[in-house]
Design goal:
3 copies of one chain form a homotrimer. By secondary structure, chain A is an alpha+beta fold. Chain A has 3 helices and 8 strands.
């Protein structure tokens, strides 16, 4: 195999509400085509600590279930329940929810494609929206 | 160091019941020997979104504790508690449990071996068995 | 791009109490300078199965919130609630907490630096201290 190559791209998001799940698989696939790497790994990570990147199903009922489940595990309110919110923030719950869903995924690149099972899709999970936030795509391989 | 190499292998599982934890460390080690990569990284990921790959202890009491704990965090029943199950599935809880335990692990390869601490073992975590499902091993390095 | 290089370093910790969060970003940055890799990926993982490496905010109120939240999700006591503790251990809760917070992070290396968003910091999360434990830093790239 030949020399190692690398590629970097940022995706920008502005979720108007507090929370959302956005399918970013097409953007990651487009990055892979653009860089021409055929064998290697893709890292996709939230660059903010109140957001996640995760892999699961693109099914709206499931996304509703995630939303309700995470709210049960780490409720937004009462906001004064959290010491972090004494800093003037109201997003402590978002820092907790992001740990359950994860910061990043690493996906194999094989024959120039995301090496995925039948239902795998990559999502940006926003838990504290209302401002511009970023995801990093980094690809290494050859 | 020399040119980058890559290697890919699928492991197949058919868990008869709904849930199980299976130690797959020997298969990952065998892949490493087979490919001859001495320095790099191994990605091991579930290719299905109701299963996990994670690293922890090979101790049956702990596996029982994981099972009971995950069932408390994301109960299987009542199945109509979950919107996802209106699609005809009964596995919404499996999609939630998998997020707690994780989709993938990345392990360092050093001197041709998994660069592990004293008790680290790699497990396939099945949360919705009864059919054939896959794990991907991808190794890059030299 | 040139040939692939790799680098490995262990960090050692001895947390006197049971639990702590320690910012290890400076040590990971120092490793990056030391190895001279400009483009690639860094893997940082706990080598023990009752500890985590994760990325979040260096804010003491948030760390207090994580501590309280994890204790609610996976209480330490009563220790005989867990089958794992029948082996003579009292750390079953630490194995559970570590799954929520994660074993490892993978960070992009770009232009010789950790490719981070504005608030990202890397932490060692100890859930069963009182003895010497390790974190592995593995860097691949060129």
């Amino acid at each position: 195999m030949a020399d190692m190559k690398s590629y970097r791209k940022e995706l920008w998001f502005h979720v108007p509400g507090r929370r959302a799940f956005i399918n970013i698989t097409p953007q990651v696939e487009a990055s892979l085509v653009e860089c021409g790497i055929r064998e290697g790994m893709v890292l996709v990570n939230a660059m903010h600590i109140t957001a996640s990147v995760f892999i699961n199903d693109d099914e709206s009922g499931l996304h509703h279930d995630y939303e309700a489940w995470l709210e049960g595990l780490a409720p937004h309110a009462p906001v004064d329940h959290y010491e972090h919110n004494r800093t003037g923030e109201d997003n402590a719950d978002a820092h907790l929810k992001r740990q359950v869903m994860g910061r990043e995924v690493v996906v194999a690149v094989t024959d120039g494609r995301l090496d995925f099972g039948p239902w795998e899709q990559i999502f940006y999970g926003e838990f504290d929206g209302g401002r511009r936030k970023r995801v990093l795509i980094k690809i290494i391989g050859e």
